[in-house]
Amino acid sequence: MTATAAPDLDRTVDDVARRAADAFDELSRTAPAVRAEGLRAAAAALADHADELVAIAQEETGLAEARLRGELKRTGVQLRLFANVVADGAYLDVRLDEADPDFVLGPRPDLRRSLWPVGPVLNFAASNFPFAFSVAGGDTAAALAAGCPVIVKAHPGHPLLSERVAELVSAALTGAGLPEATLQLVTSQDAGIALVEHPAVRAAAFTGSQRVGQLLAARTAARPDPIPFFGELGSVNPVLVSPEALRERSGDLLAGYVASVSGSAGQLCTKPGFLLVPVGTEYDDVVVTAAAQVPEHRLLNPSIADGYERRVGQVLGVDGVRVVHDGGFRRDADGQAWVTPTFVAVPLDLLRSAGPVLLDEVFGPFSVIVEYPDGTDLGAAVAELFPGNLTLTLHLGSGETEGEWASLVARLGRHAGRILLGGWPTGVAVTPAMQHGGPWPATTTDGTSVGTAAIGRFLRGVAFQDAPQELLPPPLRDENPWDVPRTVAPRGESSLW
């Protein structure tokens, strides 16, 4: 089940890929009810071993127990949610066109279309969500639900946890009747890169840095047979605040901002990296008071600490950047770092002129307050400075739902996958309507990695024309043995058009 950096890497990679391809032949024909039961069994296995898994995760990541227990619960919910999606069958989008010799554009053949799993999926686990975006996280759940075996490249930040989760989930899946090698784990970087280019792998998913994501995307595109690649790469999630919103509730709003930036030491893809407020806003006292109450928190690993220390130093080195609250940063002999949040302030013009040194993401508990002058076109500012994000948040005052503000909301939709009207972007609901993806550089392709629509990344359409019943896949046969929803275009309907 587990592949490590064996002396003969090519043989190891070929074996993992071959096992995945063999599993796909069986898994893709498995009835939805069986796949759904496998996903539920995986969720139950994780819940049954919660104490063990949370203890390992705490030791490896430094994240708080409450956060990890909540994340593990979320992971189980994701698996069960996709089990319901599979059992329902609507995700197959089955469409039947009855043969029609009198069709308005000429005789129409019998056409039957549904969505098929793409094949084995390679999933690169994330560091900051050791459950929800790792071995059994959303990408794995969506791919398994689609009928695709999954090869997970474990993240080096939580290796023991990855191994244990893979053992539990793999056993649960096979115990429920799914084929061997439905889920496999590789741990070496070389194996992960080699699998990106292996012909048996038919899609890949990644959550991590823009630099690594671009490298992997380039490799998938350069294959003799390019494959879909969904990469979640980076987002600064700007928050825009109207003058009226500040007049009505500045204290609560600013305290909420500090809490959103500081949660889990700011190591969240939806952390608000920028808060845009009108010039003249008095925010220092509230921000400093709230930030001073945030307890010290360990960063995930020394590599994250290195990147955080470097980026904070770069931002603080820009002339004109004012420190509102100077957070702490200390390291131990092993290179682990403990931090408290830092907040700085800049005028909008400086943000424009400084460019990437200020605009690029700082992964950790750090955020920039941007003061915009009266009359600023916030829509144009977003388009210029923040063209692609997972989220954009707009705080408005009472009665500001028409005119220029309504126009701004429509414009913001071009630059993010999720638009919040109030509230804070951290905390991504695992629900059917969630969109967790956005324009570049938030993600490499249009899609979502959270919510039931995430299954669509690992499906492709196939149509059959004038096929005998016995040669059709189950959801396309007249008797519909899987009992899935279907859309039917009946013979003769075009005469009514």
From TrEMBL:
Q: Protein name, please?
A: Aldehyde dehydrogenase (NADP(+))
The record's Pfam families line, in alphabetical order, gives: Aldedh (PF00171)
**PANTHER family in the cross-refs:** ALDEHYDE DEHYDROGENASE-RELATED, SUCCINATE-SEMIALDEHYDE DEHYDROGENASE, MITOCHONDRIAL
Q: Where is this region: Disordered?
A: 470-497
Is-annotated flag, keyword Oxidoreductase? yes
Residues in Aldehyde dehydrogenase domain copies: 11-375
Q: Which UniProt keywords apply?
A: Oxidoreductase
